[in-house]
Amino acid sequence: MLDLSRWTGLCNRLGLGHASSRFAILSTAYAEPHRHYHDAAHIVECLAHFDDASHLAGRPDEVELALWLHDVVYRPLRSGNEARSAELAGWWLRASAAPEEVVLRVQGLILCTTHLDAPAGQDQALVQDIDLAILGADPERFGEYERQIRREYRWVPGTLYRRRRAELLRSFLARDPIYRTPWFRERFEGAARRNLEGALRRLAG
To answer: What is the DSSP letter of 96?
Structure first.
């Protein structure tokens, strides 16, 4: 499902070597059996949103690279997946002799997908909005997303899962606005609020 030619083109534009071997690692990582949402399909969806909104990026190739790598490490039983993904990205970039400022920017773009802090600049805002675009998907896709997340956390008892999931969804709903860029707000804000409110009702029921 991941596009080798697209990945290779991106690596070539950024002057990064070992594109084929890195792609093999990415493909293996995103096909891990415990992934039901944070898999290759999520990356493809993110890249499709990026293609629609790439005109918003100051450094589009760095934004695209961060989207490819932001969930490369994903262990539902552990916290800090974003940090480990950023660490791996930094290792890959430094191994290809990328300038340190590029390394730090890409790592920052990956780390901002924790959604704990306001974005530091337009590119981080774009990455955050792309990562949360699923909240504003059509109701059928949003329902599928909620089921996929539950499968990733199927080891969590139902009562605890509903409480923790509701806390997370409320935190997004409490943001005003949810999306950092006007482009995403115009397209997804209303649907995201409806989806989140519906999900919270289902969790409560």
So the answer is: T
Task: Kindly report the number of other CB atoms within 10 A of residue 23's CB atom.
Answer: 19
Mean pLDDT of 176-191: 98
Per-residue pLDDT tens for 92-132? Answer: 999 999 999 999 999 999 999 999 999 999 999 999 999 99
Which pair of tokens denotes residue 121? 């600049």
CB 10 within 8 A of CB 60: no
DSSP 1: -
Residue 173 pLDDT greater than 90, yes or no: yes
Q: Which residues of 33-57 are buried (b: 16+ CB within 10 A; e: fewer)?
A: eebbbbbbebbebbbebbeebeebb
Residue 7: partners with Cβ closer than 8 Å, 6 or more residues away: 19, 22, 23, 26, 68
Residue 71 DSSP label: T
Which pLDDT score is estimated for 205? 86
Integer Cα distance of 75 and 174 in angstroms? 27
Summarize pLDDT for 144-168 with one digit per residue, the tens: 999 999 999 999 999 999 999 999 9
Q: Quick one: which of 68, 57, 85, 73 has its CA closest to 16?
A: 68
Which letter does DSSP use for residue 174 in this model?
T
Outline where the chain has alpha helix (H): 4-14, 19-30, 40-53, 60-69, 81-95, 100-111, 122-131, 139-152, 158-173, 182-204
d(CA 114, CA 104): 16
